[in-house]
Design brief:
The complex is a heterodimer.
Chain A: H1 64-67, H2 83-94, H3 109-113, H4 116-129, H5 133-146, H6 152-165, H7 168-181, H8 185-197, H9 201-214, H10 219-231, H11 235-248, H12 253-265, H13 269-281, H14 287-300, H15 303-316, H16 322-336, H17 339-352, H18 357-370, H19 373-386, H20 392-404, H21 407-420, H22 425-439
Helix pairs in contact in A: 4-5, 4-6, 5-6, 6-7, 7-8, 8-9, 9-10, 10-11, 11-12, 12-13, 13-14, 14-15, 14-16, 16-17, 17-18, 18-19, 19-20, 20-21, 20-22, 21-22
Chain B: E1 25-31, E2 43-46, E3 55-60, E4 64-69, E5 72-78, E6 85-89, E7 100-105, E8 108-113, E9 116-122, H1 130-141, H2 147-162, H3 169-175, H4 180-189, E10 204-211, E11 221-227, E12 231-235, E13 242-247, E14 252-260, E15 264-271, E16 275-280, E17 283-284, E18 289-290, E19 295-301, E20 304-309, E21 313-318, E22 323-328, E23 333-341, E24 347-354, E25 358-363, E26 366-372, E27 377-385, E28 388-396, E29 401-406, H5 436-447, H6 449-477, E30 482-483, E31 490-497, E32 502-511, E33 517-526, E34 531-532, E35 537-543, E36 548-557, E37 566-573, E38 581-586
Antiparallel strand pairs in B: 1-29, 2-3, 3-4, 4-5, 6-7, 7-8, 8-9, 10-11, 11-12, 12-13, 14-15, 15-16, 16-17, 16-18, 19-20, 20-21, 21-22, 23-24, 24-25, 25-26, 27-28, 28-29, 30-31, 31-32, 32-36, 33-35, 33-37, 34-36, 37-38
Helix pairs in contact in B: 1-2, 2-4
Classes of the chains: A mainly alpha, B mainly beta.
């Protein structure tokens, strides 16, 4: 019976699983200005796998049922070991008549391990085509013994196989050993990936920094650093690295997009517009880009260009991003003061994507202005259910409950809002009012 | 009031290093697994065996009494009932002066001498209202089988309660019974007879000690009890008879005692109605301090009374009722106590424990120090522990126990914090600079204002038109999660659960309108070659407004390599040939079955 307490949670700023904690003030815009993704992190300018994955240990409401929601159900499911890789392997085998090209089970790996050239080809076949890291591990360990542990290539492959099998500490050891033999960019990157999977972003940052000192001008490391800082919620540090990336590679889409969104959310839409124009010149033309340009034009005061951008965006949009475009049209309509148009736009957004929590929240506010209290309440409730990472619907619902005299409910909702955004002043103010109400005689 | 910045100290309680001032507390002893969690009134420090080594006496809600000598448990026993306070007092002048231990629990005070149960004092019963006695007498006379008589008595008791008669517990229990059979059963079981009259006991809420005629540590003293029936009793020093009874307007919850019984004494009582009454020589004084919120702690400090309130404020009043000042705190107050040193030097300070685990020391309104305990404090007691005056015993919710000692050289003088603007005032706001680009753009805006406005208005009209078209399309076709067609206002949400090949679609149907929808049916249509729906149709006889209906549609994927498809869900009514609402459910990729033949 050891009742001594051990700290359960990682320290602020050292884990990817607690995006709302940070070791130092990031200096970036608050959650009111810059919205957050479902993982509780500020939106980045570039959609990449992993960043939007809901964190497993984050606050309540993010359970396995919400993992299946979203525009593309199933893609954001919780990680299973190798599920994706196994399927790719089986699917690629299917097309062949007469069974597999190489029967991995019947190979004598020891024999092949003595012949480096064929062994390397065979190992890559196992890893990349057959997706069988277990066999690749066997072959690589035989082969690395055969060359007296001198060849970095085998160590890197061993690390890769370990990584795919989820044996992260072994993978780390192999990659480090491989780097001792030969400094290779890909090995560095893979080692950083291992650290990210281990939830040790600071080690990853160290590794990236060391590697970028070695390979000056290698943008992969700079991008990796910037991404890691983004995930740790210190956006301003990330921005510096995106700028460095652009010095070396002036057409890097990820850097341009992230810098653009940074400028947009720090109240410089005219600069953001310039970055988006660069992307357009680079040949990117999709609904998201036109939508962003429309927003930039609107907030930078270029009103004549705004709506034509949205028009193009709607033309290019498909089911995955149409709701977002309509949502932004609704925002512009609110900015213009045309609430009828805004109402229609938000309604269309939720019809295109029934899981669009932000639109539900805004429809709720508009319904409230019309005086439909019950509808507003149910909209806020829906928005909260669909987007537990948003603080707006919880606060709106709490405020409405307060005005209706439902103090208990209001208190619960305000607390929920603070869970999503611990620094929200208005929610704190509401709780303060409620507390004085509760405690007064 | 300056906030001292805190660094994290570990569980062993290492002194905070980067504090501007050294903490005046020394860590004497910490037992994280003491397993006893006490409120402030459950802890008492006393020289139990007159050997100069002060013991720590603790009682808890698990009905235990425990005495620590130093860091070892000297004595532990079960209590017969749940305690509410523990105190020691001296019943006679003796040599050596061995104090008597008193544990208040329920309506009794259990007296221990020489660590042995000695006697108990029971509070006098409350007089039961004659109306109630009459009713019970008639109930007793009646035959308990006669349900009408019992019912009649029940009604009369109920009427008496409605008229404001304070009833005994027995009557309240009786009134809680609804069934005639159980009522007559109750009367039979609790029938008062000649020997056993209707009785009502009260309960002790707080207990303090008042010195009789000498102001010395071991002088003869007497117990002061606050009770649930709004009374304050003062017992004589043998704890056998109440010698003074005072009736208050509310139930006392905290008391503070000053003076000598034979000369002049003053009892400050904080009550549950949020008022603070003063009893002087057996009389309730007319000056009452009214608080805005409920009190959570009471400490008397010289001529001042410090009251902690539920709204995180400590108010300081002069004991005659004038308010001196208030201390506003960031967190809720969990307990308050007074630090008092008389031997080595004379010092007094107020100790306030907060809900976030901080223990603060105040001299008047000046904060002297803040100590972080990283646990939930439930009780604090100041006093002499062992031979060390100025000890602080802290009991935690986790059952941990911590003892801290005030440094003999500790400076408890108030230091004036330099007044002036807060340091935040000098930090400029981070307003981004207007870029050159922005200036250029504004000049374009200035020059071509008319053209820009025209283009914008034209585009806006076009957008309004296209939006309205899309919106009308939406209304007519019953697409989207909300529908208002046919006068009904229905919401439909679908969610896919499962990894495959077995899926489940959970449908949430909610009627958001004001009127009920009748005879609705739900239908699911899909690619028959890929998915099998064992039950594609559901019938909803009525949709009550605002009620959420859950439907579960099981889906089986027939071919996990066949890609994905979507499932359409329609909610139809019998009034229209257009569905009220429809939903398109995109199915995820199906995993291969884990077990063959599943």
């Amino acid at each position: 019976m050891d009742e001594n307490c051990v700290a359960q949670a990682p320290r602020p700023g050292t884990s990817l699983h607690r995006p709302n904690t940070r070791s130092e003030g990031s200096g970036g815009p608050s959650q009111v200005v810059r919205p957050v993704s479902a993982s509780g992190r500020p939106l980045t300018g570039f959609a990449r796998p992993g960043t939007n994955r809901p964190t497993t240990s984050s606050a309540g409401g993010r359970d396995i049922t919400t993992a299946m929601q979203g525009n593309r159900p199933g893609t954001s499911r919780p990680l299973t070991s190798m599920g994706r890789l196994v399927r790719l392997g089986t699917a690629s085998m299917q097309n062949q008549d007469g069974g597999e090209f190489i029967r991995l089970e019947s190979l004598d790996l020891q024999k092949y391990a003595q012949r480096p050239a064929i062994a390397k080809a065979l190992c890559d076949y196992m890893l990349y085509y057959a997706n069988n890291p277990r066999k690749a591990l066997e072959l690589a360990s035989e082969a690395t013994q055969a060359v007296d542990f001198k060849d970095w290539w085998w160590k890197a492959r061993l690390g890769k196989a370990y990584y795919q099998l989820g044996l992260l500490r072994d993978a780390e050891k192999q990659f480090k050993s491989a780097l001792k033999d030969e400094e290779i960019v890909a090995t560095h990157l893979e080692l950083c990936k291992v650290y990210m999977r281990l939830d040790q972003p600071n080690s990853a940052v160290d590794q990236y920094t060391r590697a970028s000192d070695k390979f000056v001008g290698e943008t992969h490391f700079l991008i990796g650093l910037a991404r890691t800082y983004d995930m740790l919620n210190s956006l301003l540090r990330g921005v510096g690295f995106y700028k460095k990336v652009l010095q070396y590679d002036s057409v890097n889409a990820e850097a341009i997009a992230c810098l653009a969104s940074h400028h947009f959310y720090t109240d410089q839409p005219e600069l953001a517009l310039r970055f988006y124009r660069r992307m357009l010149q680079n040949g990117v033309s999709n609904a998201e880009l036109w939508n962003n340009m429309g927003l930039c034009c609107f907030y930078a005061g270029q009103y004549d260009l705004t709506l034509s951008c949205f028009e193009r965006s709607l033309m290019l949009a498909d089911d995955n991003n149409m709701a977002d475009v309509w949502y932004n049209i609704g925002q512009v309509a609110i900015g213009v003061g045309d609430l009828g148009l805004a109402y229609q736009a938000f309604k269309i957004a939720v019809s295109v994507d029934p899981n669009h929590a932000e639109s539900y929240s805004n429809v709720g506010v508009l319904e409230l202005r019309k005086g439909n209290v019950e509808q507003a309440q149910s909209h806020f409730a829906t928005a909260m259910r669909l987007g537990p990472h948003l603080f707006e619907p919880a606060f709106n619902g709490g405020l409405l409950a307060f005005k209706l005299g439902e103090f208990q409910e209001s208190f619960e909702l305000a607390n929920k809002a603070l869970e999503a955004y611990p620094d929200h002043i208005e929610s704190k103010e509401l709780i303060k009012q409620l507390k004085s109400h509760f405690s007064s005689l | 009031m300056a906030e001292t910045s805190e660094s994290h100290a570990d569980a062993a309680g290492i002194e905070e290093k980067d504090k501007p001032k050294k903490s005046p507390w020394l860590d004497a002893w910490t037992d994280p697994v003491a397993g006893i969690s006490c409120y402030s009134s459950f802890i008492c420090l006393s020289d139990l065996q007159a050997d100069g080594d002060h013991r720590l006496i603790m009682v808890d809600l698990k009905k235990r009494i425990r005495i620590y000598k130093g860091t070892t448990i000297q004595w532990e026993q079960k209590l017969p009932d749940m305690p509410c306070a523990v105190q020691t007092f001296y019943h006679e002048v003796a040599n050596p002066p061995v104090p008597t231990l008193a544990v208040a629990s329920g309506s009794r005070v259990l007296i221990y001498r020489h660590m042995r149960p000695y006697m108990k004092y029971t509070l006098p019963p409350i007089e039961v209202d004659p109306v109630e006695i009459d009713i019970w007498e008639s109930l007793t006379k009646a035959k308990s089988e006669d349900l009408n008589e019992v019912r009649h008595g029940w009604d009369k008791l109920n009427a008496a309660r409605e008229n404001g008669t304070v009833l005994s517990n027995q009557s309240i229990d009786f009134l809680a019974l609804e069934e005639p059979e159980s009522q007559s059963e109750f009367v039979r079981a609790n029938r008062p007879n000649k020997d056993f009259l209707l009785q009502q006991q009260t309960a002790i809420t707080c207990m303090e000690v008042l010195k009789q005629n000498m102001d010395e540590p071991t002088a003869v003293s007497m117990l002061v009890l606050g009770t649930e029936n709004k009374m304050v009793y003062i017992l004589d020093s043998s704890a056998l008879n109440p010698i003074t009874k005072v009736e208050l307007d509310a139930v006392p919850s905290f008391m503070s005692v000053l003076g000598l019984y034979d000369v002049e004494y003053r009892i400050t009582v904080a009550c549950r109605d949020g008022n603070i009454y003063t009893i002087k020589n057996g009389q309730v004084l007319s000056n009452v301090i009214e608080l805005e919120t409920q009190p959570v702690g009471l400490v008397r400090f010289d001529k001042n009374v410090y009251v902690g309130c539920m709204d995180n404020v400590v108010h300081c009043f002069h004991f005659k009722g004038k308010k001196n000042h208030s201390i506003y705190l960031q967190n809720a107050i969990s307990c308050m106590s007074l630090l008092q040193i008389t031997k080595a030097r004379v010092a007094k300070a107020l100790v306030v424990a907060l809900a976030n685990g901080e223990v603060r020391l105040y001299n008047g309104k000046h904060l002297i120090t803040t100590t972080q305990t990283h646990d939930v404090v439930t009780g604090i007691k100041m006093g002499t522990f062992g031979r060390e005056e100025g000890s602080m015993v802290i009991s935690f919710k986790s059952g941990a126990l911590m003892v801290k000692i005030l440094q003999r050289s500790a400076n408890l003088e108030a230091t004036n914090v330099a007044a002036g603007p807060p340091p935040e005032q000098d930090i400029p706001l981070d307003v981004p600079k207007k870029t050159k680009l922005y200036v250029e753009q504004t000049s374009r805006e200035r020059e071509q204002a008319i053209d820009m406005h025209r283009t914008f208005q034209r585009d806006l009209c076009k957008l309004r038109l296209s939006t309205a078209r899309a919106y009308v399309n939406l209304l007519g076709a019953g697409h989207g999660p909300m529908s208002t067609s046919g006068g009904a206002n229905v919401r439909l949400n679908a969610q896919v659960l499962g990894m495959g090949p077995q899926f489940k679609i959970t449908l949430r149907v909610q009627n958001a309108g004001a009127h009920a929808v009748q005879n609705a049916s739900v239908m699911c249509i899909t690619n028959q070659k890929l998915y099998r729906l064992p039950k594609p149709c559901f019938y909803l006889p009525v949709l009550v407004p605002q009620q959420v209906y859950f439907l579960e549609v099981p889906v089986t994927c027939l071919n996990e390599n066949g890609g994905t498809d979507s499932i359409r869900v329609f909610l139809c009514s019998d009034k229209s040939n257009v569905p009220i609402i429809s939903a398109l459910v995109n199915m995820p990729m199906s995993e291969p079955p884990l077990i063959d033949g599943f």
